[in-house]
Amino acid sequence: MSTQPTSSAHQDFAQKKANGARIAILGAGESGVGAAYLAQQKGYEVFVSDFGSIADNYKKQLQDWAIDFEENGHTQELILNALEVVKSPGIPDKAPIVKQLLAQNTPVISEIEFAGRYTDAKMICITGSNGKTTTTSLVYHILKNAGLNVGLAGNIGKSFAYQVATEAYDHYVLEISSFMLDNMYKFRANIAVLLNITPDHLDRYDYKLENYAASKFRITQNQTAEDAYIYCADDAETIKVMEGKQIAAEQLPFSITKKIETGAYLENDNIVINLHQQHFQMSITELALQGKHNLYNSMASGIVAKVLELRNETIRESMGNFHSIEHRLEFVAKISGISFINDSKATNVNSTWYALESMTTDVVLILGGVDKGNDYGMLRDLVKQKVKAIVCLGKDNKRIHDAFEDDVEVIVNTSSASEAAQVAYHLAAKGDTVLLSPACASFDLFKNYEDRGKQFKEAVKEL
C-alpha cells in the first residue's frame, strides 16, 4: 500500500494553472486515455506510456488529439520528470516505474482523483467486493428516470475524466474499485456506498484481508457531516472495521436480518426505508432484481435515492423495470426448455455463490479459468443442493475436480466457450438452468470476462 508523497510539489493542483506543467499517464486504457484528454484540456503537457500494446481505438484517439504516447515499454526519463503521474488502476504499486516515482516523491494518483478536481458535481460512489456494477447501474437508472442530470463512470462506461472534460453533469454515479481507492487522497464522496467486503484481489494486498478492507474504507475519507455513508449491517467484515474507525458522514445501514431505525430493512417481504422524514416501502416481488444478494443491492440504491429526496413513485418504477447488466446474471435464451444464464462477470467465488443462491431450478454450472487462490469450500452446500453437473472451462481444472468430486456425479473438462455450451446443453434437461458463473478470471482462454461472456452467448445462439 503506498501513501501519498509529501513534497513541495504536492499542492492543490486544481487551483494552480497548469501553464504547460508536465503530467504523465501510466496505462492507455479507458481511464488513462480519458485522463490524458482532460489533462490536455487543462493546459498540461501530456505524455502517455503503456508497458503493453495500446488498443487501436485508444491509439487513434491519442493521435487525433495530438497527445504524445509510447507503448510496449516505459521511457523512464519521460515519466520521472513529470510534476504528477496518473496511474491506471490495473498497475500495481510494486511496478518498477511506480516504485521509482514514489521514491522520488512524485505524486501518483488515480484518474478519479485527478478528474474530481475539475467538477463540482455531487459524487455518489459505490464500492464492495460483489454487486457494485449492478448497484451502480441501478442507482444511475433511478437518478436518470428522476430527471437528474447524471453521468455514469468509474469501472463502468466512459471514463470519468473524459466526461468531466466533455460534459457538465450535476451528479456522477461512480463504481469504484479498491485499486482506484488506493490512489485517491483528496477526493470526496458526497454519498459513499460500501456493499460488502469478501476476499478478492488479495495478491495486491500482501494476501491480507485487513489490507484489502482498509482500501475499501478509503471511500469514506474526506467525508463530512453533510455526507452519507451507506453500508451493510449484515456484513461481518464491514462491521469489524467500523468498530475502530471514525466516520464523519451520517451512517445509514441496511439489513435483511434486523430492523433498522434509520436506513433500510426487510419486513413482511417488503423493503422498508426510513430516513428522517423520508419513508419508502416496496414488495420484494415487484423488484426487477431477484435473489437475496439483490435485496442488498436494491436497498442500498433505495437509500441513495431517498438521501437525494427523490419521489417514491419514481424509485418504485425504476426498481421494477431495471434490466440486469450484461455479463451479470444475464438471461441469454431458453432452448428446449433449458434456460441459459451468462454470469461471466463472476470472477470470484463469492460472486458465484450469489449466482447459485438465486437459482430456483437444477443447475449445470460452468466453472473455471485463472484461479486466484480460490477457496471453493463456501460453494459446497449450494453445489450439493442445486448443481447436477459441472462443466470446467479453463486450462487447469484440477482444483475444481478436487473440490467437488464428492458432491457432483459429472465433472467435464472443456477448452472453449462453444464446447462448454454444447456439453452443458447435453447434460441439462428441460426445466434446468445452464449457468456460466466461472468464479475465476478469464485470461487463460479469453481476453477478459466480457470476451468470455460474448463467446458464450454466441455459442448458445448456435445450439
TrEMBL record:
Question: Which residues belong to the signal peptide in this entry?
Answer: none
Name of this chain's protein: UDP-N-acetylmuramoylalanine--D-glutamate ligase
Q: Which domain of life is it from?
A: Bacteria
Q: Which residues form the Mur ligase C-terminal domain?
A: 327-440
Which molecular function term from Gene Ontology is one that the record holds? UDP-N-acetylmuramoylalanine-D-glutamate ligase activity
Kindly report, in one word, the top-level EC class recorded for this enzyme.
Answer: ligase
Keyword Coiled coil attached: no
Free-text function comment from the UniProt entry: Cell wall formation. Catalyzes the addition of glutamate to the nucleotide precursor UDP-N-acetylmuramoyl-L-alanine (UMA).
Task: Give the EC number.
Answer: 6.3.2.9
Q: Which reaction does it catalyse?
A: UDP-N-acetyl-alpha-D-muramoyl-L-alanine + D-glutamate + ATP = UDP-N-acetyl-alpha-D-muramoyl-L-alanyl-D-glutamate + ADP + phosphate + H(+)
Q: What are the UniProt keywords, alphabetically? A: ATP-binding, Cell cycle, Cell division, Cell shape, Cell wall biogenesis/degradation, Cytoplasm, Ligase, Nucleotide-binding, Peptidoglycan synthesis
List the pathway annotation. Cell wall biogenesis; peptidoglycan biosynthesis
> Which HAMAP family does the entry link to?
MurD (MF_00639)
**Where is this protein primarily located?**
cytoplasm
Species of the source: Mucilaginibacter terrenus
One cellular-component annotation, GO: cytoplasm
The answer to whether UniProt assigns keyword Cell cycle to this entry is: yes
BP GO terms, sorted: cell division; cell wall organization; peptidoglycan biosynthetic process; regulation of cell shape
User: Which part of the chain is the Mur ligase central domain?
Assistant: 126-304
Q: Where in the cell is it found?
A: Cytoplasm
**Sites where the protein binds ATP:** 128-134
Q: Which family does it belong to?
A: Belongs to the MurCDEF family.
